[in-house]
Design brief:
The protein is of the alpha/beta class. The protein has 11 helices and 13 strands. Helices cover about 40% and strands about 20% of the residues. The protein is globular.
Length: about 350
Amino acid sequence: MRRVSRIAVVGAATASLALALSACGSTSTSAGSSDAKGDKGLAIAYDVGGKGDQSFNDAAYSGLEKAKQEFGYETKDVEPTEGETDADKTQRLVSLAKQGYNPVIGIGYAYATAVKEAAAKYPDTTFGIVDDSTIEADNVADLVFSEQEASYLAGVAAAKATKTNVVGFVGGVDVPLIHKFEAGFEQGVKDTNSKVKVLSQYLTQTAEEGGFSSPDKGKTAAEGQIEKNADVVYQAAGLSGQGVIEAAAAKKVWAIGVDSDQYKQEALAKYKNHILTSATKDVAKAVYNLAKSVEDGKPEAGIVRGDLKSGEVGLADSNPEFKGDTGLQEAVKTAKEKIISGEIKVKTS
């Protein structure tokens, strides 16, 4: 455990020794009890949208903050750059490993190539990747989730909440990961009320086109669905989802958030009365758990999955109107129990 070496060098840290990642995006470093190489802790590299998306990336940052506070070590979080390549991502992760951070986590499936290459160069460093299960290496943890299960519950909620029998889904990028959100949502809607129509739209074909980072695109898509009578719109679109929520609030219909409990996000506070619920996945817990496993000397590796049964995906109940709807709550509870028991098999595409 690194804790012993940290205690031995208490007081050695100085903020002036924080290193910047040249040509790899902006960084934020928090100094702990030691900044000697090999005694640094968790580092994360953000996905498109970066910190401040009130969703996916911010959840990862929460996990990093928890690890920093509990283990008292130096951490780093690094922003992406516009138009970056796999080589840029690889350089970012290699630089973090070279500086002594361990573990190093790529936040998002776009880091798959980079994590694979960096892990091969630094076999003694533990790497993690969120939302990708394709990397098979002894020093890589594939941190994945059953997003379709939480999305199914979001579909149940939407079907119970709609008054027009039209609901919408806005996906950030047309990729298999987001197909899981759409598939679960539509199944949940249809299983609850087959008469409800689901309008679906993807913002872009690739992340480089801004599907996860363009609130204006999300807003336009949601407005189009609302014009077609959708009165509940579920978004799985990263930063773009803020535009969906804004459009829903402006038209006084329901939005359903994603990844984080978006009802509680400070940047979305003025819209929160129109955020019915959020389909959550505990990226913060996955990030923290990997850091803890390294700290304990037993690094996680292979596929590490969070689902309804483990409590790492679910449906937020922060909105009192959502929590107080007895019929809706009963429908969600029943669906959750059936998914966990295996009675309901949720589709992934």
